[in-house]
């Protein structure tokens, strides 16, 4: 799960990481009022779940409240296209209006989970700012990496190595180190999967400040992070993914055309591989889960068919606790509700109550291709062009 910059900055402040003064606005008039409070000079920043705003015109320095209002007017309600949004962009619904900082140097600081070392790793670079992706691609040696030992905790050598490695002036190494330690505390306390400050700036008047803030959270930990879960902004997420989450279904939209419904994450991955190997691309990952009801199956099937890019569907079920006849009932109910099937459907069923499931589908009058093994099923769905 992602949050907006202003929400991440509120968490930063809670953990003692210095951030610029500012507030979020949903109208140009509110942006003007905040700029007025801040003394006129300010930065107006589009709040969207995507980076690269600076280069896309989504971050503007303004010299007066009037100008803040004009910039907010230009941004609010319109799509912002950055290199992370895709060509259609995302609609800006709020802007953050902050006091402007005089920047002397832009650094990068981040924490992510490193799968290889199986622990969080802190990354720091002297070459922070808007070109960090290019730095990572072309001169990765300019990014220092420090694995963090979960048992030893945040040891002073970590901040010393990183602060001095980034050439932070000696008198600012300690405050920079304090920010590192606080970011790590936040990362652990809030079950983050990513925490990033880019840029972390050294100001002209000798302070270290988080000018940008990006936090991602582990979805599987949200059950114990009620305050974070509350920050979820459904308008920024894929609407089908939101609907699936509410129904307790794991659904991830992909760029292909073969809708896939499977029980079990591993089987779903294998099914997507088989579709790809057979010559087509999956439109989604979908795991209805092991103990789904026929209503959940029905809902999952409807979600798949709501995706306009889906031109055929493959259902692959290995009946266990979720019996094949329950799946068949869910499919038939969904088709009834939708007034028939708008695309070819291939179903492969094995396991508990397979014969009952197949008999229900065969008797339903729906045009369904049945297959017994996954390879045949994948080939059939690839061959089943509209
Ligand atoms: P991003 O492009 O989406 O990552 O947005 P950022 O919040 O990182 O802002 C992009 C860039 O705008 C930063 O790298 C800074 O160079 C610039 N910027 C942001 N806030 C200020 C500010 O208060 N003063 C100045 N001078 N520049 C700023
Ligand atoms: Mn940034």
The major sheet is characterized as:
6 strands, antiparallel
- According to CATH, the fold-level topology of the largest domain is D-amino Acid Aminotransferase, Chain A, domain 1
User: Span between N and C termini?
Assistant: 36 Å
Number of strands: 18
Named CATH architecture of the largest domain: 2-Layer Sandwich
Q: Report Rg.
A: 25 Å
Low-confidence stretches: none
Provide the CATH superfamily of the largest domain: ATP-grasp fold, B domain
Short description:
This protein is α+β, with helices and mostly antiparallel strands. The protein has helices at residues 5-14, 28-37, 65-75, 132-138, 156-165, 173-189, 226-229, 239-246, 265-277, 294-306, 324-338, 354-363, 374-383, and strands at 22-25, 42-46, 59-62, 79-80, 90-91, 95-99, 103-114, 119-125, 143-147, 192-203, 208-210, 214-217, 250-253, 258-262, 284-287, 312-319, 345-351, 368-371.
Description:
With 386 residues, the chain is of the alpha+beta class. The chain folds into three domains: 1-20 and 102-236, D-amino Acid Aminotransferase, Chain A, domain 1, CATH 3.30.470; 21-100, Dna Ligase, domain 1, CATH 3.30.1490.20; 238-385, Rossmann fold (3-Layer(aba) Sandwich), CATH 3.40.50.261. The protein is 36% helix and 25% strand. Strands 7, 8, 9, 10, 11 and 12 form a six-stranded antiparallel beta sheet that branches. Strands 1-6-2-3 form a four-stranded antiparallel beta sheet, covered by helices on one side. Strands 14-16-17-18 form a four-stranded parallel beta sheet, sandwiched between helices. A hairpin with a 4-residue loop joins strand 7 and strand 8. The chain is elongated, with a radius of gyration of 25 Å. Bound molecules: guanosine-5'-diphosphate and manganese (II) ion. Manganese (II) ion binds at residues 51, 198, 212.
